[in-house]
Design goal:
The protein is α+β, with helices and mostly antiparallel strands. The protein is 27% helix and 30% strand. The chain has 18 helices and 38 strands. The strands form 10 sheets. An 8-stranded antiparallel sheet has the order 13-12-9-10-11-14-21-19. Strands 3-2-1-4-5 form a 5-stranded parallel sheet. It has a 5-stranded antiparallel sheet with strand order 25-26-27-28-29. A hairpin with a 5-residue loop joins strand 15 and strand 16. The longest helix has 17 residues. It is globular. The relative contact order is 0.08.
Length: 647
Amino acid sequence: MFETVLVANRGEIAVRVIRTLRALGVRSVAVFSDADAGARHVREADTAVRIGPAPAAESYLSAERLLEAAAATGARAVHPGYGFLAENASFARACADAGLVFIGPPPEAISLMGDKIRAKETVRAAGVPVVPGSTAAGLTDAELAAAAREIGLPVLFKPSAGGGGKGMRLTRLESELAADIASARREARSSFGDDTLLVERWIDRPRHIEIQILADAHGRVVHLGERECSLQRRHQKVIEEAPSVLLDERTRAAMGEAAVSAARSCGYTGAGTVEFIVPGDDPDAYFFMEMNTRLQVEHPVTELVTGLDLVEWQLRTAAGEPLPWAQDDITLTGHAIEARICAEDPARGFLPSGGTVLALSEPRGGGIRTDSGLSEGTEVSSRYDPMLSKVIAHGPDRATALRLLRTALARTVTLGVPTNAGFLRALLAHPAVVAGELDTGLVERDARDLVPDGVPDEVYAAAAAVRLARLAPAPGPGWVDPFSVPSGWRLGGTPAPLAFPLRVPGQEPVLRAAPAGARVTDTEVTVVSGTVAHTFRYAADWLGRDGDSWQVRDHDPVAASLTGAAHAGADTLAAPMPGTVTVVKVAAGEKVSAGQSLLVVEAMKMEHVITAPHAGTVSELDVVAGSTVAMDQILAVVTPEEVASDE
């Protein structure tokens, strides 16, 4: 076993790998950018090395700086985690050239399976069924559009060089082909440095099932059963489970055998995942999609049902140890389900969010595991992936695991950064999810019904109660000035309860008094509505309950008027999320039509197109390509045609 391993990643996966290194008695080396100097993975490692400024291209994506860090700390191996350089064959070769062991498959396997076009042809030759689609590399936009027409819409455009749902576009209408191809190329180039695309037939209401494999350097390959990852948004997984309710033992064995064949076809070693698309009404008709040549985000559900530590076996196989099991030795026990906690705001269309973690509570024990890179004080920015943590439940059966996970999400608190925890809790209670009737489009179809409409009144009541408590004089012996007590006392009149002007971003301001009988401690506030008591965790101007959170600000109508916020209407285009303006398609003074694409804002590897709300003239344009913007920052103003003509 290695003496020292450098973890070439950040966040929750770095913390996860460090945990296993510690258990094996292996010295861990963390790396960090300037943005992560105080991050949890830095504190938990045995030693840490600064590798550059905040932009990933100058730090986590710099092979040169990572290798320098390994040399400076005496590391003999590098664990890449997932994302960043985990599936970069050039980095794996550079590690070998520097005398380091890359804890992953050989560079040749990464290169082969990282090119989705070559990968499909390779596994097809090994007898694995593949999804119909384009087979040529380097297609132009026109050739991609022609291939899509030949295959037949709907189709899915995918980056040849990457995974994780980045850069994927589902196109149903021929009129959208050009825009979707251009958008997919931009996101692929941003995420993977390669904008090569392929196109595949889209299978309506498919299920996404993947097989975990392990392979050693001595020719043994086994699979560890399947994971179902059909609950997705924007082609990115949000809930994963093992095993799948769709598969019987015969189909599981057949898909496992196909996955093993795919791994053998590329000379694979270490841990990897073979992904299949499966028609929900015909599980026998499964198709190979791609192979992920790394550890998957959802690996904990496999660990919980098999009892194996996949990071440990990545290390052991990389060190040359043989796998000690035959396929018949692998058994699955119970059911495990994982929920990905991401920095995104369901109330604002799931746009990426950010902020500072003011209060944190993460459930553990009693069948619950949380893998997290968070701590109180963590700054969540738009520079990196939005996933913050994962909550995983394991029970004797699926119903128990679902119940445990819903309860755990209700106990999850991340104040200061909007997350999707409350949404995931609602999703896990969806009748189709409970019944196991899943498909990759379910979340998109029903997402709106799973997001609360507006802000519950008790949220404002709790915020008012906290503010009232802050006005009260500190308790203590001695005389209390009656004018310092916020009682609402009036000379010669009935006391008038203090009312506070409050506002939740995206909502209209309200005036709310604290309800009678509210109880406020240093971290919690309880208010009663009718016969129901509602208890919230709070920190600064944030309130949280059952996985949901709200920022309730003090509303100053005078200040809002002076800044123009009170008058920002349909003409004003504001940044929907903190991020970077990557494309500006118009100039000030230019006439635009309703729905015309004006700007593109990117955050956490996701693009958001800003369109004209109506026909008119761009009367203000306050940003250029490359501008960093805050949430709700004004980007442009489009003056309507009729107003422009009057002026």
